[in-house]
Design brief:
The chain has two domains: 1-36, no CATH class; 40-112, no CATH class. The protein is built from five helices and two strands; from the N terminus they run αββαααα. The longest helix is centred in the middle third of the chain and has 22 residues, at 40-61. The protein is of the alpha+beta class. 6% of the residues are buried. Strand 1 (12-19) and strand 2 form a beta hairpin.
Length: 117
């Protein structure tokens, strides 16, 4: 058993078996509940904060002048941040100028290639 297999044993193990007359390895997950046990009070605290944040977001959407415009801008910002992770040096202003057929200060081809739902 390698160090990696030993380390991941709490996630489950592989066993050798046969299928269709051929020897194969099958994954057998570890039994539930996990060890160490889940800290439900702490998870509930995180869950409650997440529910409150979603509630605040839902409240804010009622005062938006244009939900489609908000979503349009949010998707553009996400594409920009994803491209910046890969090294593209551009700003949201550059992207908006590019989309309006104006000349931004940097190339934005990488940002435009990101899927914009």
């Amino acid at each position: 058993m390698t160090m990696t297999e030993e380390h991941n044993q709490r996630l489950g193990t592989f066993i050798e078996t046969s299928a269709g007359g051929e020897r194969v390895r099958a994954y057998v997950p570890a039994p539930l509940p996990p060890i160490p046990t889940l800290d439900l009070p702490q998870l509930m605290s995180v869950y409650e904060r997440a529910i409150a944040a979603v509630g605040r977001l839902d409240g804010v959407t009622t005062i938006l002048p244009s939900t489609p415009l908000f979503l349009y801008m949010y998707v553009r910002k996400e594409a920009l941040l994803s491209s910046q992770i890969e090294g593209t040096q551009s700003s949201l202003s550059d992207l908006l100028l590019y989309e309006n057929d104006e000349a931004p200060s940097v190339e934005l081809d990488d940002v435009k290639r990101w899927p914009m739902g």
